[in-house]
Structures are given as C-alpha cells and as structure tokens.
Write a structure and sequence with these properties.
It is found in: Nucleus. The protein is an all-alpha fold and about 220 residues long. Helix content is about 45%, strand content about 0%. The protein is built from eight helices and two strands. α3 packs across α4. It is elongated and about 80 Å long. The termini are far apart.
C-alpha cells in the first residue's frame, strides 16, 4: 500500500526531448521592421538636408529646370491674382522640381519591385497610394490603378515610408531592387545605388534642359 501511495503522489515530469511551447501569438514584431523604419527616416532626413544645403548655396537665379513663364501663366489662372513678384515663380520652380523628383523616386521603386525598367502609370498610382502626403492626387489618378494598388498594399506595412538611397555612391539613374523579408513582407535593406546624381548633375548633362534663359523662348512662346 505504501508503495502504491508513493507512486500516485509522485509528481509527473515531461519526457526528455520535449520541444518548448510555441511563443504567444501576440509576440513582439521582428527587430528588422523597427530597424528599417529608423533607417528610412534617416535617409529621408539626408535627402532634405542635401536639398537645404543646395538651396542655401545657390547663386544662379537665372537658370531653372522648369520654365518660369509657364509657371507664371499657371499662377495667373487664378482671377484673384493680379500681380506676381519676380521671386515667386522661382520658388514655385524649385518646389515643382522637388515634387517631381520625390514622386519619380517612389514610382521607380515600385517599378523595380515588379522587375521593370520603364515607369508606367500604375507605378505613379502606387507611389500616390502609398504616400499620405500625395493623397490630394488620388482624384486625378485612374480609378482602376488606385483600386488595384490599394488591394496590394492593404496587407503590407503601410506605415513604413519609402527610403531615399544614401548619397555619395556611384552616379546613375538605376537603383537596385530592395531585398524583401518573406516572413514580414517589409524591406530589410536599401538599394545599392543613389539618386543623388539626378538632382546634382541634371543641369550639367542637360537631361532636364534649361528654360527661360538667355532670351530663349519658353514653352508658351514667350521670351524670358
């Protein structure tokens, strides 16, 4: 009887070699997500830091990437605008240049995700859909493109902004395809090449061209 009682009261131990229990479903997200978010924010800060430094050192106010006469004509489309100062179109020209550059970078990243070398309208729609500051453009983007991209982005980490590639690397328009973690669906490293040459050497190589200078006619036929 004593032996039976001791056998019944002895605690039970799991057999050796039993795997540990799985982690709870609400475990913390993987570390690469937070590292990626911080890295992208740093790249964005680098981009705007470079732009501020470039603007501070600008001495030539006659050469512009966009025609000032065309910008001034658009500004005068508002009937309430009577007079426009000389520096206002210059500021608009730079603002439009930065807008085009950023939207192009974000669109190109989407094209790279799909292994393409040509920007398409769905790439621009994707950049607009994924970026909150571009939501004012939703109404002018084809609805089919918006719906298609929204369905693809719904399950992704929409809170992660696109990054700007680090500066100081070899020049070129092409950037590498970002690596993606299949488990989390987010990018884990930036592309290898930079877009710095786009805004640094555009005026030198004539890729954008100049407008409104040296008495040459602008797009609307007017002289600068």
């Amino acid at each position: 009887m004593d032996n039976n009682h001791q056998a019944q009261s002895a605690p039970s131990y799991p057999p050796t070699g039993t795997p540990p229990p799985p982690p709870p479903p609400n475990a913390a997200p993987p570390a690469p997500f937070h590292h990626l978010l911080q890295q992208q924010q740093q790249q964005l800060q680098m981009f705007w830091t470079y732009q501020r430094q470039e603007i501070e050192h600008v001495n030539d106010f006659k050469n512009h990437q966009l025609p000032l006469a065309r910008i001034k004509k658009i500004m005068k489309a508002d009937e309430d605008v009577r007079m426009i100062s000389a520096e206002a179109p210059i500021l608009f020209a730079k603002a439009c240049e930065l807008f085009i550059l950023e939207l192009t970078i974000r669109s190109w990243l989407h094209a790279e995700e799909n292994k393409r070398r040509t920007l398409q309208k769905n790439d621009i729609a994707a950049a607009i859909t994924r970026t909150d500051i571009f939501d004012f453009l939703v109404d002018i983007v084809p609805r089919d493109e918006i719906k298609e991209e929204a369905s693809l982005v719904a399950a992704a980490a929409s809170g992660v902004p696109y990054y700007y590639p680090p500066m100081g690397q070899p020049a070129g328009m092409m950037i590498g395809r970002p690596a993606m973690d299949p488990a989390t669906g987010v990018y884990v490293q930036p592309p290898s090449q930079a877009w710095q040459s786009v805004w640094q050497t555009a005026a030198d190589d004539g890729s954008y061209g100049t407008a409104g200078t040296s008495g040459q006619p602008n797009l609307d036929g007017s002289q600068s």
